[in-house]
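Pilot study result, target chain (484 residues):
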Amino acid sequence: MNQNVKIDPYGFREYDARWLYEKDINSAGIENLGRGLGTQIKIHTKKENPRVIVGHDYRSYSEEIKVALKKGLISTGCNIEDVGLSLSPMVYFAQFNLDADAVAMVTASHNENGWTGVKMGVKKGLTHAPEEMKELKEITLNKKFIKGEGNEKQIKDFDKIYKDDLINKNKIKKKIKTVVACGNGTTGVFAPDILRGIGCEVIELDCNLDWNFPKYNPNPEDLKMLHEIAKVVKENNADIGFGFDGDGDRVGVIDDKGNEIFSDKIGLLIARNLSNKYKNSKFIVDVKSTGLFSKDKILIENNCETVYWKTGHSHIKRKVNTEKALAGFEKSGHFFFNKPLGFGYDDGINSAIQVCHLLNNQNKKMSKIISELPNTFQTPTMAPFCKDEEKYLVVEDMVKKIENLKKNKTEIDGQVIKNILTVNGVRFSFEDGSWGLIRASSNKPSLVIVTESPTSEQRMKKIFEFIDKLLKENGKIGDYDQKI
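Predicted structure:
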């Protein structure tokens, strides 16, 4: 059956490929994506039959998409090693463990049902960044495919190897009572086993797989999911609550009192804990993260440096790799642990394990540990709608406006703008450490807005109101997904 190929070019995002299945891409389109990826892998590895690890998440249509993707890959000469139902980090781990040439994971992570996508990479532990995505898009849309003869084999029970690897390296002495929430996503068949394996007492929440996501999307930035975890933590008097996303590369954390701890603060606590043992280390954080890293006394005492970099798992992963940083932390809950703690990629379960080590090392409750950080007032990540074809232009406009405000020493809530960082959108900060961020989302038609103030909730709100006003004046912005 010769189906017309349908691929919306906008699906090739900055570092993920994401489409609404059948509306923006059909199975013939997926097959061509496989041909494009196979061609790209052959170009980069210079091998006739590169070995590619393939896995899929638990969405109703992921397996059918994987079949089409594999068909495309095999037609270029790739030899497929299919590890079956997977988490993204399990596929990344398999590349190291089986010493393979590339990975392709069928997942749309936490996006709503209907979405599909592929996380892919050639160099071990790294996923496609904008350069590779651009090349893949070129090859795929222009059908510059290499022909070859590949094959495929199923790798049975690889999930056990992945689980054992994390369990055996991370045994803890303390019986930490943990709520493990998976939003009915794929992590449900992994996280409870692994955390029990290292020695936690586990209370499961929505860990049964259900591709309809009956309660909410498995997204640890989703307030609905976080509130549900908080409730269960309090009812069970648990020490900690973890919420995992659909493909297991992110985690959200709730303390023993049921309070959500933004991931950047968790990152800071983990960095502090690690800096005592690994002095002179470097940490990478994304531009959405708290300003506390740059002034943290414990990190400074241990001679550690923090670099603020572009948001996005591929960007932070690469920066951790090129800077040989010990770890990287992203506000959305992607954490990256480099050797000796990990292989440099993001694994939500390994991140949860690092939090367990933190609790294991300290004789304090999580709420007490977090209260020792300087207090800051921070908005959740807010995403006002903005068309894909307009969002980068809107951000450019914002950069110019904010640079003018700095030049003219315009005051916002009595403060002038002190620093502007434009590695990714625009992050402008004030004398007291307050800051605001406006950037384009890399995987959705929206902008991303965050503000934080160590001074007061009012200042945080004032900075947001200032941003909101600028955006309204621009006229190309729609509704927010959530708003303070």
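One observation from the pilot: The longest helix spans residues 388-407. A full batch analysis is planned for the follow-on phase.
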